Amino acid sequence: MKKIKEIILGVTGSISAYKACDLLRFLKKSGFNIRVVMTEEATNFIKPLTFQALSGNEVYINMFTENTSWNPKHIALAKAADIIVIAPATANFIAKLANGICDDLLSCICVATRAKIVLCPAMNENMYKHKAVQDNVRKIKELGVIIVGPVKGRLASGDIGIGHMVEVEDIVRVTKRSIK
Ligand SMILES: Cc1cc2nc3c(=O)[nH]c(=O)nc-3n(C[C@H](O)[C@H](O)[C@H](O)COP(=O)(O)O)c2cc1C
């Protein structure tokens, strides 16, 4: 029997976090099993319950919650993933990934995994154009992360500029193409 592919959907603390709901729905419709991992900050924008209901799976946030068996969550999830899709990805999360920082569940999974990572930045235009962010984007590209977007569009501030997360359909297309 064909194994169902496992996707970890990483959601970070951006105003675009709500778009991850549609992304999850599209990916699930395409036949993937989705496990959502949120940063603590992402929970300010959207409730874990929403992702739990849409995915039909537990939503993971903390590394240090009790396990019923000895199986560290970050390693188990990192191993199980066929691909990791981070959408939206904040400037902060990109900086952590660029520097191998592992201070929460999602960043640990990204460093522990051998799966491909597709990452979709979303932020204010000035943030995106900042040299530190540009350097970090370049660094993670060199590490093999597949970066999708951002594009020009209406930002949270109301301005039109670069920093808008790519459309969900585009993320689904890249994910399907990249999954092993
Ligand atoms: C209303 C609001 C919207 C935000 N949107 C973004 C965003 O789109 N992109 C971004 O990089 N940071 C954004 N931030 C800042 C992040 O939430 C902040 O850097 C946070 O520490 C990111 O944490 P995380 O990377 O662990 O999820 C926003 C903050 C607020 C209050």
Can you give a write-up of this model?
With 180 residues, this protein is of the alpha/beta class. It contains eight helices and seven strands; from the N terminus they run E-H-E-H-H-E-H-H-E-H-H-E-E-E-H. The strands form two sheets. A five-stranded parallel beta sheet has the order 2-1-3-4-5, with helices on both faces. Strands 6-7 form a two-stranded antiparallel ribbon. Strand 1, helix 1 and strand 2 form a beta-alpha-beta unit. Helix 4 crosses helix 7 (131-142). It is globular. The chain starts with 5 loop residues before the first strand and ends with a helix. The mean pLDDT is 94. Flavin mononucleotide binds at residues 12-16, 39, 41-42, 90-93, 122-123, 127, 156. Flavin mononucleotide (FMN) binds at residues 12-16, 39, 41-42, 90-93, 122-123, 127, 156.
At a glance:
The chain is an alpha/beta fold. It has 8 helices and 7 strands.
Structural domain count: 1
CATH homolog superfamily: Flavin prenyltransferase-like
SSE succession: EHEHHEHHEHHEEEH
Q: How large is the radius of gyration?
A: 15 Å
